Amino acid sequence: MGALWVVGELGPEGGLANISMEVATLVRDLAGSAGHAAIGVVIAPDPGPVATELAAYLPAVWAITEPAAGDQAWSAVAAGHIAALLATESPDAIFVGAGADGRDLAGAVSALTGLGVLVNATGVSWVDGGPAVEMSIFGGKLQTTSGFTSGRGIITIRPNVTTASPAETAGKVESRSSAPAAGLPGVRVLDRVSEAGAAAPIEEAKIIIAGGRGVGGPDGFRIVGDLAEALGGAVGASRAAVDSGWIPYSQQIGQTGKIVKPELYLALGISGAIQHKVGMRTSGAIVAVNRDADAPIADFADLFIVGDLFEVGTALLDLIRARSG
Questions:
Q1: Nearest alpha-carbon partner for 6 in 34, 39, 31, 49
Q2: Residues 48, 67: contact at Cβ < 8 Å?
Q3: Ranges of each domain in the chain
Q4: Predicted local distance difference test score (pLDDT) of residue 204
Q5: pLDDT in tens, 259-308
Q6: Rounded CA gap, 259 and 162, in Å?
Q7: Does CATH place domain 202-324 in 3.40.630.30?
Q8: Within 13 Å of residue 114, how many CA atoms lie on the same side as its CB?
Q9: Which label site among 128, 223, 264, 320 has the fewest CB atoms less than 10 Å from its CB?
Q10: How far is 316 from 211, CA to CA, in rounded Å?
Q11: Interaxial angle between packed helices 48-55 and 18-34, expressed in degrees from 0 to 180 and rounded to the nearest 10
């Protein structure tokens, strides 16, 4: 029986990263259809708690203790161990989230082992004995399906392309020993800085209020923030607003920003260009407010309101406050 590996990433607070829960869910289903084993791999100074979290999604998890992962860049340390495991093991594919750490790890493992990488997958199926990886290209205008010419490789999965769902029965955690492969220098972490006032990551928000060029400037984001606070959501933005310096890049949604999947996405003054659509099209309900009746977002919004975003936003805010009061 072949095997599919999921590399479990560490979250900002030390637990399992949410993106790894999503990847594990996708791989568990894929392994079932392929008749393969699904195995998680956790590399951390104290891998037990994170491995236990990952075992809620996968039938088997290998826990590898590596003290250096605590004070060095995790991706480089983990890549050395994955490369070492590949010297004796032959999984059919290795999966990791397409976040900053996951991309770094995939590139390092590829350099150490020669395995190919398929990036930013939006879906994976099992066809003719190998993974068929769906990817969105040219700003979401085209969907491609690719495979590995060598039969196996590394796949990075985009955030929010699937919903994390624990298995009916938790899997088993097995301690493994591994000597990291040589070739990667250690990268010591000198400091970690959290953004001041940052709430939950925007990728995890259930409600997002996003502003675009139409808000007109930094002051225009006041109504966006007020609505987000009233609804218990997060503030997002289009690239135009970020490039104008009205809001930090950490809030950017789209092809060159974050991929989100909230239950409600309220877009204020956002035209809905394809580059932005790529980042939010899987939202549960999309509501848009724009003065331009021909704005592209009208074609895919569930509810499109033609009007002034400040008038509509203020009226909505008054209604929300009246109900909560």
A1: 39
A2: no
A3: 3-176, 202-324
A4: 83
A5: 898 999 999 999 999 889 988 988 999 999 999 999 999 999 999 999 99
A6: 12
A7: no
A8: 4
A9: 128
A10: 15
A11: 50
